[in-house]
Design goal:
Keywords: Developmental protein, Disulfide bond, Signal
Organism: Littorina saxatilis
Radius of gyration: 24 Å
Structural class: mainly alpha
Protein name: FZ domain-containing protein
CATH superfamily of the largest domain: Frizzled cysteine-rich domain
CATH topology of the largest domain: Frizzled cysteine-rich domain
Shape: globular
GO molecular function: Wnt receptor activity; Wnt-protein binding
Largest sheet: 3 strands, mixed
GO biological process, one term: canonical Wnt signaling pathway
CATH class of the largest domain: Mainly Alpha
């Protein structure tokens, strides 16, 4: 009798364990769509939700952030209108809320081919390689039975402008700045005001939180450096000083963590990028970049 009771108990425990494991698997694979938070994709692609894990087995957007970090400059420089779409949809596949399915949409094969044909040479020149999971042939076409993230029409405008031009700064966040002119391309090689506008607006909730009175000064000077014609016309712009960045990072780190779902402080605002007010910052071409502190009373 005791032996039979033991077998029954063992069977019940085993069944319970199996059911618990099955429930855990179901819960891990039927997660709801989550909002795209990674800054190189957020608001810059034509969808707002994703579901992980992706085909690289990333389970968090922080992992995706670090994986996309080396590709960020190439997205910004605009070698292709489709590179950002391709990489974001590959690492953060599109998810449609409310649809009871585990399916997510990867980039279309044509999106991949357009991005690689325009950016392949310059990316290869800088030592980045396409991983096996990035092979275009593994992606679907435009079949009606399959859904994928389609490409945009490539523009012929000159995206990689080399000459720095000063122009009125139209960004809404920057209209109260002490300097009214900004320069493009910016230090991140961005020359598309629409993309810059979307990216800087990602920080609106932080600005409105009042975590730092210097946050908007840092953002405006970073994304569209101030045009202040000084003694040298060869260097017509200035960026915020490192000390401004350090104060903002100290004052706003918690607000950034909350607003961005725990993602790390963005590399574009890493303070070592900016010169100190005590010295000029020497660039690779031996030119120096002066910096600006907020004017007294600003």
């Amino acid at each position: 009798m005791t032996w039979r009771l033991f077998l029954v108990t063992l069977t019940l425990l085993t069944t319970h364990r199996i059911l618990a494991q099955e429930e855990e698997i179901v819960n891990s694979t039927t997660s709801e769509c989550e909002e795209v938070m990674v800054p190189m994709c957020r608001g810059l692609v034509e969808y707002n939700y994703t579901r992980l894990p992706n085909r690289f087995n990333h389970t968090t957007q922080e992992q995706v952030y670090w994986a996309l970090q080396p590709w960020w400059p190439f997205m910004d420089m605009g070698c292709s209108d489709n590179l950002r779409i391709f990489l974001c949809a590959l690492y953060l596949p599109r998810c449609t809320p409310g649809i009871p399915t585990l399916a997510t949409d990867l980039p279309c094969r044509k999106t991949c081919k357009k991005a690689k044909s325009r950016c392949g040479a310059i990316i290869g020149h800088h030592g980045l390689t396409w991983e096996e999971e990035m092979t275009c042939e593994t992606l679907s076409g435009f079949k009606k039975s399959q859904s994928c993230v389609k490409p945009k029409r490539e523009t012929n405008k000159k995206r990689r402008q080399q000459i720095i031009e000063c122009q009125p700064n139209p960004l809404p966040m920057c209209q109260h700045m002490p300097y009214t002119l900004g320069s493009l391309p910016n230090p991140f090689l961005q020359n598309d005001l629409d993309e810059i506008g979307v990216e800087i607006q990602q920080y609106t909730s932080m600005v409105e939180s009042g975590c730092s009175t210097r946050l908007s000064f840092l953002l405006c000077g970073a994304f569209m450096p101030f045009c202040i014609h000084g003694p040298s016309q060869d260097q017509p712009y200035v960026v915020p000083c490192r000390e401004v960045c350090q104060q903002v990072q100290h004052d706003c780190r918690r607000q950034f963590h909350d607003a961005w779902g725990g993602l790390p402080w963005p590399s574009k605002l890493h303070c070592h990028r900016y010169p100190s007010h005590t010295s000029n910052y020497l660039q690779d071409d031996n030119t120096t970049v002066p910096c600006s502190m907020p004017p007294v009373g600003f």
